[in-house]
Amino acid sequence: MLETPSRQDGDDAARGPGSARVFMAVFWRDLFVTGRELPSFLAQVVLQPLFTLFILGKVLGDLGYVGAEFEQVLLPGVVALAAFIGALQNTALPLVLDFSYTREIEDRLLAPLRLELVAVEKMLFGAARGVLSAVLMIPIGMLILDGVDWPLSAVPGIAGVILLGSLVGAAIGMTLGTFVPPQRIEIMFAVTLTPLMFTGATQFPWLGLEAIRWFQVICAVNPLTYFSEALRALLLVDGSVESLPLWISLLVLGAALIGFGFAGVKGFMKRALD
Q1: Measuring CA to CA, which residue among 245, 240, 203 is closest to residue 226?
Q2: 48-93 pLDDT, tens per residue?
């Protein structure tokens, strides 16, 4: 696709301005673009989780179809959903556009950075948008739902889990955005996003599915399940809802990040060198 500098040329260029400085410059430039596109970004990542909270938590709660404890279960899952899907979409979709239509990726490939670092920057940018989506959903959820009570002592753990889960979503987005042909990306999103959202234990605790074992097994394959369960393990400390042990969720999320991150970087390099 593009004649890229040799590895030696890239190393020499990196020693000039400093690869870390170039990496951060590219990263901050992408964050600046997010500020300029804030309305469209908010519409993309907040509307679906917002309506999920409002309908399932507020409307059904006021009608008496769900109890107050359901709100405690729902909000961590919706926060995980917003971060995960926000990171996935904001990594995969720009890659598809950059590689096929706008060709903007060519500017990045000419930067004095190794190809691997360009891919990592794309994932970090997508993860940053996922984190922002989660941060926005937390106060929104607190306003919509009346029965939510989160301990302040869990804030550091929540921040760490949101960052890890967003990185996993971005890594999956990088894998999908580089391995799926551009002409099939719409079909890919149509057949993957909905199953990801509804099998990610965002609206129910995973351990509560023991009576529906086949569906519990399907949900166990989805990394979003462990993101949702990790947040619940940190927040629902009163024992009212049993969650997966935190260490199991973190272990699975870490393994998913390594696996999908490696695959995504390899796919990015292959597309960039084609």
Answers
A1: 245
A2: 888 888 898 889 888 888 877 888 899 999 999 999 999 998 898 8
